[in-house]
Design brief:
The structure is a homodimer of 220-residue chains.
Chain A: E1 2-13, E2 17-29, E3 35-38, E4 48-50, E5 54-58, E6 63-68, E7 73-86, E8 96-98, H1 101-110, E9 120-126, E10 133-138, E11 144-153, H2 155-168, E12 177-186, H3 188-196, E13 200-203, H4 206-218
Parallel strand pairs in A: 11-12, 12-13
Antiparallel strand pairs in A: 1-2, 1-7, 2-3, 3-4, 5-6, 6-7, 9-10, 10-11
Helix pairs in contact in A: 1-4, 2-3
Chain A binds a DNA duplex (15 and 15 nucleotides) through residues 12, 14-16, 18, 42-45, 48-51, 72, 97, 99-102, 125, 127, 131-132, 150-151, 160.
Chain lengths: 220, 220
DNA sequence: ACATCTATCTCGGCA
DNA sequence: TGCCGAGGTAGATGT
């Protein structure tokens, strides 16, 4: 990783055109060839960047040009270099996450009877023309149920599930299909909309689901 | 801006919990108090971060703790500092952009006849109870048309336009109101949904619209 | 403060 | 490869 502090101006021409007037900034050149330009505020988003794969060419005239395959260009005009150092970091072992939607889906699919006695899984990520349904299952009566899972349940999620239900109910092999909106937290507006559309709401307890899963594993 | 290269492990506890095992990384501490941790790849997204406003406390035991108002925590355990330098950058003048959705809307409103002969603009940002319609206009037959503009046309945009159409069609002064979904790029699923709802799809050519605009300006 | 919407979104997954 | 959905989305804008 190369760290350069320099007064520079920057031009980006790609998905949009953008310009940064001359000012002192941090320029990061990483081992994968990517380049990013940071001001002295904001943790997350660089002022300007070029994602890998891309190539950096340092011209004789203190103009750096970064290009990628799509023809996007980042042109950095160096006016005064204040710091320039390089460091070997090696490959990062990466982030270990916990508590995201994919995990909730796994946990609930593995313990679908949490939703009611006699419920059985048809499949996770059930494919439709407008995208996959998180979980398709059957309730105790054998009625098909589409489950939409969110970490935070908002109106968008109810709309999404409504579209799936409309589509699934056109399939005579599946119809009638009921809907369940499952989330760790359900916003009041989302609950009202779901209820109005006869969609059931279930608040998921992540720790409890994981506990159940742990108990299951302990049996083996 | 402070640049620290260090072997460290990191724990985040907040909206989720995440852990970074020990490895050499870049730690950026910016003038606004924000902190970000970068591996030697990827231009855009840090491995971990804390957005401002937040406060960093460097403990005696080489443990740095960053907290924000919401109680989220970032804990950096420093194991070996390989580089540590600070630099005064000042406030950045900021990015000047061109070619975003607002601009597309201006361009299309100024050249509404792109959509068809005899089309006329009623107004941009036509206000409704559920938000402004990007463009309201009339087609060659005098029928009212609501236009939703996106840079990239996806399902959400079609849903949004559908809600507007439903509302506008309740107004006897306007009804019947047709819908046009206009974007630089329209995803297949969005097109399917739009077509199913009798909403027209138009792919906008930004450069062509700008070219027309340039031609217009040249007349004056 | 909160809600809504955009983004050079980035990123991962799956067809 | 393209398409789709999630994100600690972040960041901007309007109420």
């Amino acid at each position: 990783m190369r760290l350069v502090i320099a007064r520079c101006s920057v031009d980006y021409a790609g998905r949009l055109t953008a310009h940064l007037p001359s000012a002192p900034r941090l320029i990061l050149v990483k081992a994968d060839g990517s380049v990013s330009i940071h001001a002295d505020d904001r943790a997350y988003k660089p002022l300007n960047w070029m994602s890998p794969p891309c190539t950096l060419k340092e011209g004789d005239d203190d103009v750096w040009t970064v290009v990628n395959k799509a023809g996007e260009k980042l042109i950095i005009t160096m006016e005064e270099v204040l710091h320039d150092s390089s460091h070997e970091l090696g490959v990062d072992p990466g982030l270990i996450k916990d508590g995201v939607e994919a995990h909730l889906q796994e946990l609930l699919a593995d313990r679908i009877e949490t939703l009611g006695d006699g419920w059985t899984l048809i499949r996770r990520e059930y494919p439709t023309a407008i995208g996959p349904v998180d979980i398709l299952c059957r309730d105790g009566d054998g009625t098909t149920v589409a489950v939409e899972i969110k970490r935070r349940g908002e109106i968008d999620g109810v709309e999404q599930l409504t579209r799936y239900l409309e589509l699934l109910n056109r399939d005579p092999h599946l119809a009638p299909v009921k809907g369940i909106f499952a989330a760790q937290e359900i916003k009041p507006q989302a609950r009202v909309l779901a209820t109005d559309r006869s969609i059931g709401c279930v608040v998921l307890d992540y720790d409890a689901l994981r506990g159940i899963e742990d108990d299951k594993l302990r049996l083996f």
